[in-house]
Amino acid sequence: MMIGGEEEVISTTKFLLDLIAKKIVHIGESGSGQMVKCINNLLGIAHFVIGCEGMLALSKQGISLEKALEVINSSSGRSLMTMDRIPNQVISRNFNYGGSLGMWIKDGILGSEILKTSLTQGSEKNLDLTNDIVLLKAIERAKQALTTFGDDVDETFIAKYFEEIYHKKIE
């Protein structure tokens, strides 16, 4: 759990927090834990989007995804998404990781707002850099899946969205 707030308050309530979280990291002032959570989820969405598109491209070329992931997951491209979600939820056709697409996208949108605000703040001549922020492209793709399937489906349905638009299953 990433948490923000006064150290004294966190110390006195840690015994309760220990009941609901394996790991607790005090990030800083109030609100900072939420910011880290939103950026973390935005990164997760980006990894998932890129991973799904990469697997689709390889699959369309007739490349074994099992072999591709064996190489990727022992190389610099590995992530939780390539090591777990894509093989165990998408390729296996489970699509049931347990997180709702709507909640994941909500945090991703909040994360993208943090990026836009923070990265454009004080930029030279107040340039609008929002079109240059790569992670914002990933959230836009994920939002298209949300529009297609709605809030209540599993977050891995982003992969199903890609399968629909590219007319190919990730398998």
Q: How are the SSEs ordered, and which strands pair?
A:
Elements: E1 2-4, H1 7-20, E2 25-28, H2 32-60, H3 65-72, H4 80-91, H5 101-120, H6 134-149, H7 157-166
Parallel strand pairs: 1-2
Describe the 3D structure:
This protein has 171 residues and is mainly alpha-helical. It contains 7 helices and 2 strands, in the order E-H-E-H-H-H-H-H-H. It has helices at 7-20, 32-60, 65-72, 80-91, 101-120, 134-149, 157-166; strands at residues 2-4, 25-28. Strands 1-2 form a two-stranded parallel sheet. Strand 1 (2-4), helix 1 (7-20) and strand 2 form a beta-alpha-beta unit. Helix 2 packs across helix 5, helix 5 packs antiparallel against helix 6 and helix 6 (134-149) packs across helix 7 (157-166). The longest helix has 29 residues, at 32-60.
Tags for this entry?
171 residues, two-stranded parallel sheet
Structural class: mainly alpha
> Helical proportion?
55-70%
Give me the strand/helix succession: EHEHHHHHH
Largest sheet: 2 strands, parallel
Please state the overall shape, judged from the principal axes of the Cα atoms. globular
Instruction: Tell me the total number of β-strands.
Output: 2
Describe the strand arrangement of the main beta sheet, using strand numbers. 1-2
Overall pLDDT confidence: 90
From the alpha-carbon coordinates, what is the Rg to the nearest angstrom? 18 Å
How large is the share of residues in beta strands?
A: under 5%
Give start-end ranges of low-pLDDT stretches: none
Number of helical regions = 7
Terminal CA distance reads 34 Å
Oligomer: single chain
